[in-house]
Amino acid sequence: MTAAGTTTGRRGRPGHSLDSLLDVAVAVFNERGYDATSMDELASRLGVTKSAIYHHVSSKVELLRLALDRALDALFAVTQEPGATTGPAIDRLEHVVRGSVRVLTAELPFVTLLLRVRGNSPVEEAALQRRREFDQIVTDLVRAAEDEGDVRPDVDPAVAGRLLFGSVNSLTEWYRPDGGLSADDLADALVATTFQGLRARS
């Protein structure tokens, strides 16, 4: 997935695309922390001058915004897929959970950066607001599934949503793409363990 459709508008110097710049920037942000990372360090890591970076973006803040939007846009795209918009709410909820695992495995560094945001700047606060909107979508799905009789009535929808995505988000702490587990493997395991306690007893 490209960075929220923004990587096609500006052409970089040969060998240095905005996508590759974002990949390196996010790796360094995760390694050192956003605030501790300078444009000089990014230029050094890329083996280019700072002016080459500014050919693509106006500032380090713009790099952060693009990186966070890449993760968030991918997550929100899941909620617009047919599996998330039609059918019983419990199935739509499972689709969103599975899709979120798929996004996490595909965009691991970007999702990791998103989960470390604390609202220390307008860009970070905007990202947190979008995360809250995503959380509300999940909460609404849990509530709808409860209303349809597929989720235990003693489970608070907001708490259930946080627990579900706490499990999804925890994957950033230990999942490695070269570890032999596919996105489907992870999603199967997570759904099997979390939905068993969530579903209403028949």
Automatic annotation (TrEMBL):
Transmembrane segments: none annotated. SUPFAM superfamilies: Homeodomain-like, Tetracyclin repressor-like, C-terminal domain. Coiled coil: none annotated. PROSITE patterns: HTH_TETR_2. The keyword Membrane does not apply. Residues 38-57 bind DNA. GO terms for molecular function: DNA-binding transcription factor activity; transcription cis-regulatory region binding. InterPro entries: Homeodomain-like_sf (IPR009057), HTH-type_TetR-like_transc_reg (IPR050109), HTH_TetR (IPR001647), KstR2_TetR_C (IPR041490), Tet_transcr_reg_TetR-rel_C_sf (IPR036271). Residues 15-75 form the HTH tetR-type domain. It comes from the Bacteria. Keywords: DNA-binding, Transcription, Transcription regulation. The keyword Cell cycle does not apply. This is Transcriptional regulator, TetR family.
